[in-house]
Design goal:
277 residues; alpha/beta; BirA Bifunctional Protein, domain 2; 12 strands; 34% helix; globular
Length: 277
């Protein structure tokens, strides 16, 4: 399905942030969502990283799979996303977020349809780096899902030879949509299992082997390590090419900064939010 753009939708903000704590990253994404949805800010593509290894849970995911003792032992933080999905360990990665008004052409249709539209920008960017990627509708399965996001691709998420490369999640709120996702650049994709509960160490090692079979990193896909900024530039160019838009480097507005600081304190940095399930 082709995407037609209105004149107003052809210019987006581009925000590239330094590594930040997990609660701060989630609060910024949420603040941008409110701003874009209200019309105060134009569509926004944001790239960021994490200052500490952080396990993020989906909006409705239970905390039961989290091994809090091991989380602390591995110096990992815990945060809950505003979006759905399953657990992701954010480390050695490029994280993107795309925020659009609900009326934007890329937001048309269902969540799955918008995943398909948005994946075109990710595909072009990764292809420009030399990755042989695809984004297809996921096959139906009767398997009970594990708590790990990267153990199987969802609809139109990016994969390399069937192994998941980009994990994404979306929320629609305040007349806007936020989709953010994780592109692991290097390292052991199965490190997430060190923060989760298993009956014994044999079960943990089996889970790690399964994650390694079903997911991959950009380093594995290309046979080399790609710098964070190089990857961000490639994805940004992919979005520009796929959707015919111009990206304008920007910072957060003052109102977004104030909102993000409040959300970090009252929501994403609070156990009431993070441990609520």
């Amino acid at each position: 399905m082709s995407i037609e753009h209105t004149r107003d939708s052809r210019q987006w903000r581009l925000i590239c942030d330094p590594p930040l704590l997990g609660a701060c990253n989630m609060a910024i994404d949420d603040a941008i969502l409110s701003s874009v949805a209200s019309g105060e800010s134009i569509p926004t593509l944001r790239f960021y990283a994490w200052s500490r290894p952080t396990l993020s849970l989906g909006y409705g995911q239970r905390t039961r799979p989290v091994d809090f003792a091991r989380l602390a032992a591995h110096n990992m933080q815990l945060v809950r996303r505003p979006t759905g999905g399953r657990a992701i360990l954010h480390i050695d990665e490029l994280t993107y977020s795309l925020t659009l008004p609900i009326t934007h052409p890329l937001a048309r249709g269902s969540v799955v349809e918008s995943y398909q539209h948005i994946s075109q920008g990710l595909l072009l960017g990764l292809c420009s780096l030399g990755a042989h990627v695809a984004a297809e509708r996921a096959a139906a399965t009767d398997t009970v899902p594990s708590p790990v996001c990267f153990d199987t691709p969802s609809h139109y998420e990016i994969a390399v030879e069937g192994r998941k490369l980009v994990g994404s999640a979306q929320v629609r709120r305040h007349e806007g949509i936020l989709q953010h996702g994780s592109l692991p650049l290097c390292g052991d994709i199965a490190r997430i299992c060190d923060a989760l509960t298993y009956p014994d160490e044999a079960a943990r090692e089996a889970a790690k082997a399964e994650v390694r079979d079903l997911a991959t990193t950009l380093e594995q896909a290309l046979g080399k390590v790609v710098d964070w900024q190089v990857a961000a530039d490639a994805i940004a160019n992919g979005f520009s090419e796929a959707f015919g838009i111009s990206l304008m480097p920007c910072d957060l507005s003052e109102k977004e900064r104030i909102t993000a600081a409040q959300l970090e304190k009252e929501v994403y940095g609070s156990d009431t939010w993070t441990l609520r399930r």
